[in-house]
């Protein structure tokens, strides 16, 4: 049995040495110990002596062989008191009745305090949390026994506590669940005392502290399970007053008309509602296994006035499937399953005011086989019937996020222009890239790569890059508003161009091949806009200025292991940035207001402009009209009180009553 | 004769110090009431009151105000009309007021230092008043 044991070493040759252990009583009065002689044995009382001989030293082990569990008095073979063993032993090493070495052991062993009794079924009452913290002694883990190092344990007797009193757990775990708080008068050591501290510090005892539980006593209510359903417009003859900008287009059965679109997370949602006057152009990936048909095209749509219109569908076949299909590199089996699927759907809604007059759908079909990935394209365009061009003269005249920026080329006879950025395709080369118009409010960054040989002439490269980037900007002016008309020059803002520094003379690296300086490979389009007014609550935004600049890079031919005569890639990029400025410059501060911080609410907590805070514009808790109404009502009440206190009023009152 | 009666009665004048003290007590108590009410409101915002300990504090404050008004009225009336009964009743009510003041001094949920000062001063005033009332009663009885 493994119990308390102690090891020691007898140094020296242990041949012929007898080891013995003797229990020696201590004289009660004098406290002296009698030295023993060599007449002991290897067992004494509950103690055992074990010797492991070795060449130079022998290991001597003394072990206790009794049960150390604490038990009831009068029981046998266990400890009746916490202090179980208090004995003095002597270990002797004798050779031929001569004492060679002498080891004195004084043992004071306490009973094991682990609980081995029955677990009672009575539940402990949990005190009211508001008055007593649950777990006033968090380290009291065993019930019915003393937890070592837990000074707040009520089951620990004072003698036991003395053993570990210096090693008690501190803090909350040790039972200090009511730490002194800042507002106690006795916590003078707190550095940051407020000015009122001498009078408003808490003098009462620590039993009532703000750390006690603060519990909610309100009423509870069972929540209704929310039904996430589209609120159905049940009445069939409902007065449909037309579509406003952003309303979903509805079908005959009062369901949403859906076309696959891109969600905010970027993935394609197969049935997403279409918003009125919101054009979109999305590309969705699909394969043969995951292909799903959309809404059938014989569904009739609500035109806005209550009657329903049929979609006029035109079917076409794809001529160039390479633009849509990417073949995956899987193993090609002999038999491939192919299916006839829609490659692209183009919806054109012809609208007049708040109603849809006509819907034209062009659907491109093609065959999709197993192992191929198809990029489906869905576009929707809302056109006005009153004009044939793609401009909208209704709705908000200002720019809205997502609408293309209007551009015009005032120098040419045909004043239409465009502001584009790259739309790469295929491998991302500039030769196969197309353009996509710059959309208002959407900061974009796109580019394509140009293949450049190692012995490319630098000035030729510069010209090529500049020409390619210039082809994105086919305009000299940009429209201030969405409905800027070409005939009015006031509606347009001239594009400020910062052309790249054209250096014909700085090239001194002509002899070094494969490196070119000052290549204007990055185009920056900065569009500055402001919010000027609002139309029906929707803010109207206008473009104030457009600046186009170039950033230059040093192009270096990227060699592989050896510099072969292949082509290197040069990325050319175009970045669009929209900067919002306030429509009106802020009112300049006087020098007095700048020097005295009491007038500046940004630099000071308390400032003069906020003196009548609830009545000033700084208070944004309620609408200003409500604040003003309440203030005026209070002023009226004060006036009424003042008038009624006047003596002549009471006389008037009395005379009117009599 | 009438002159003798008046001269005899002049030895039993109303106690001026007691009247003064009653007046000062009235003024001080109004200040005390407002201050204690404000401090209870401050405590309820700054600290958390365990379950419904705020209601007893406020109730006892209002009871104390009523008792104080009663006590001062009886004391003043008894002094001016030179009758022992109101003075004695006033003394009895003072015992209740002292207990309530002790509550606010020691047994309140949170006792601030300002509470200690106000209540200590109030208790001193009560003590002094009680002594003067006993003296007045003794003068009237004898």
Automatic annotation (TrEMBL), chain A:
It holds the Pfam family TCTN_DUF1619. One of its GO terms (cellular component) is MKS complex. Keywords: Cilium biogenesis/degradation, Glycoprotein, Signal. Belongs to the tectonic family. Residues 241-384, 398-581 form the Tectonic-1-3 domain. PANTHER family: TECTONIC FAMILY MEMBER, TECTONIC-2. The lineage of its organism: Eukaryota, Metazoa, Chordata, Craniata, Vertebrata. This is TECT2 protein. It comes from the Eukaryota. Part of the tectonic-like complex (also named B9 complex). InterPro entries: TCTN1-3, TCTN1-3_dom, TCTN1-3_N. Residues 112-221 form the Tectonic-1-3 N-terminal domain. One of its GO terms (biological process) is cilium assembly. The keyword Glycoprotein applies.
From TrEMBL, chain B:
Signal peptide: none annotated. It is found in: Cell projection, Cilium; Membrane. It holds the Pfam family Transmemb_17. The chain crosses the membrane at residues 20-42, 54-74, 86-106, 118-141. Keywords: Cell projection, Membrane, Transmembrane, Transmembrane helix. It is a multi-pass membrane protein. It comes from the Eukaryota. InterPro entries: Uncharacterised_TM-17. One of its GO terms (biological process) is non-motile cilium assembly. The keyword Membrane applies. One of its GO terms (cellular component) is ciliary transition zone. This is TMM80 protein. It comes from Todus mexicanus (Puerto Rican tody).
């Amino acid at each position: 049995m493994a119990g308390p044991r102690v090891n020691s070493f007898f140094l020296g040759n242990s041949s012929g040495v007898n080891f013995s252990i003797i229990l020696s009583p201590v004289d009660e009065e004098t406290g002296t110990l009698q030295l023993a002689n060599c007449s002991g044995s290897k067992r004494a009382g509950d103690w055992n002596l074990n010797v492991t001989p070795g060449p130079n030293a022998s290991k001597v082990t003394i072990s206790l062989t009794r049960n150390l569990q604490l038990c009831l008095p009068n029981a046998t073979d266990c400890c009746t008191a916490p202090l179980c063993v208090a004995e003095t032993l002597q270990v002797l090493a004798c050779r031929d009745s001569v004492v060679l070495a002498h080891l004195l052991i004084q043992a004071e062993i306490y009973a094991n305090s682990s609980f081995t009794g029955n677990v009672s079924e009575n539940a402990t009452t949990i005190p009211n949390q508001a008055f007593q913290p649950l777990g006033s002694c968090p380290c009291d883990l065993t019930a019915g026994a003393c937890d070592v190092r837990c000074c707040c344990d009520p089951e620990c007797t004072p003698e036991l506590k003395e053993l570990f009193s210096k090693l008690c757990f501190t803090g909350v775990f040790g039972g200090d669940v009511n730490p002194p708080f800042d507002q106690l008068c006795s916590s003078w050591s707190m550095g940051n005392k407020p000015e009122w501290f001498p009078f408003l510090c808490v003098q009462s005892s620590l039993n009532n502290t703000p750390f006690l539980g603060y519990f909610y006593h309100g009423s509870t209510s069972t929540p209704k399970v929310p039904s996430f359903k589209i609120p159905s417009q049940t009445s069939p003859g409902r007065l449909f007053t037309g579509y406003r900008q952003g309303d979903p287009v509805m079908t005959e059965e009062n369901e949403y008309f859906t076309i696959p679109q891109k969600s905010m997370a970027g993935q394609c949602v197969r049935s997403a509602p279409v918003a009125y006057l919101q054009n979109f152009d999305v590309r969705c990936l699909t394969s043969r296994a995951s292909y799903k048909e959309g809404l059938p095209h014989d569904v009739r749509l609500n035109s806005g006035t209550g009657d329903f219109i049929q979609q006029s569908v035109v079917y076409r076949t794809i001529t160039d499937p390479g633009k849509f299909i990417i073949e995956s590199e899987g193993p090609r089996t002999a038999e491939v399953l192919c299916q006839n699927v829609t490659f692209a759907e183009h919806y054109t809604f012809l609208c007049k005011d708040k109603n849809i007059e006509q819907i034209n759908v062009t659907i491109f079909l093609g065959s999709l086989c197993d192992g191929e990935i198809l990029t489906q394209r869905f576009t929707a365009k809302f056109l006005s019937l009153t004009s044939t061009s793609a401009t909208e003269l209704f709705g908000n005249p200002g720019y809205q996020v997502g609408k293309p920026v209007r551009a015009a080329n005032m120098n040419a006879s045909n004043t239409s222009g465009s502001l584009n950025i790259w739309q790469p395709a295929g491998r991302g080369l500039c030769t196969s890239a197309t353009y996509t118009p710059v959309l208002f409010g959407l900061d974009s960054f796109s580019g394509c790569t140009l293949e450049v040989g190692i012995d490319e002439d630098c000035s030729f490269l510069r010209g090529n890059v500049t020409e390619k980037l210039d082809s994105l900007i086919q305009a000299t002016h940009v429209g201030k508003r969405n409905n800027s008309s070409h005939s009015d020059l006031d509606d347009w803002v001239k594009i400020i161009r910062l052309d790249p520094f054209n250096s014909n003379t700085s090239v001194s690296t002509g002899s070094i091949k494969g490196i070119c300086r000052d290549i204007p490979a990055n185009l920056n389009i900065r569009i500055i806009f402001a919010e000027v007014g609002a139309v029906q609550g929707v803010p109207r935004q206008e473009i104030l200025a457009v600046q186009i600049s170039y950033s230059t890079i040093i192009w270096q031919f990227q060699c592989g292991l050896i510099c072969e005569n292949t082509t290197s890639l040069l990325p050319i990029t175009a970045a669009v940035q929209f900067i919002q400025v306030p429509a009106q410059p802020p009112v300049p501060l006087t020098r007095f207001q700048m020097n005295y911080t009491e007038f500046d609410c940004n630099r000071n907590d308390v400032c003069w402009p906020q003196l009548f805070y609830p009545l000033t514009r700084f208070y944004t808790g309620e609408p200003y009209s409500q604040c003003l109404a309440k203030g005026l009502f209070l002023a009226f009440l004060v006036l009424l009180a003042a008038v009624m206190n006047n003596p002549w009023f009471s006389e008037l009152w009395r005379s009117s009553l009599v | 004769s009438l002159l003798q009666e008046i001269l005899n009665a002049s030895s039993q004048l109303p106690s001026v110090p007691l009247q003064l003290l009653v007046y000062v007590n009235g003024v001080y108590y109004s200040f005390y009431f407002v201050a204690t009410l404000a401090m209870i409101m401050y405590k309820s915002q700054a600290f958390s009151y365990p379950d419904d300990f705020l209601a007893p504090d406020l109730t006892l404050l209002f009871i104390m105000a009523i008792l104080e008004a009663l006590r001062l009225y009886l004391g003043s009336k008894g002094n001016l009309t030179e009758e022992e009964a109101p003075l004695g009743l006033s003394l009895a009510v003072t015992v209740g007021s002292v207990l309530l003041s002790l509550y606010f001094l020691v047994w309140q949920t949170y006792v601030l230092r300002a509470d200690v000062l106000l209540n200590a001063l109030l208790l001193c005033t009560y003590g002094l008043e009680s002594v003067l009332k006993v003296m007045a009663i003794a003068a009237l009885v004898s």
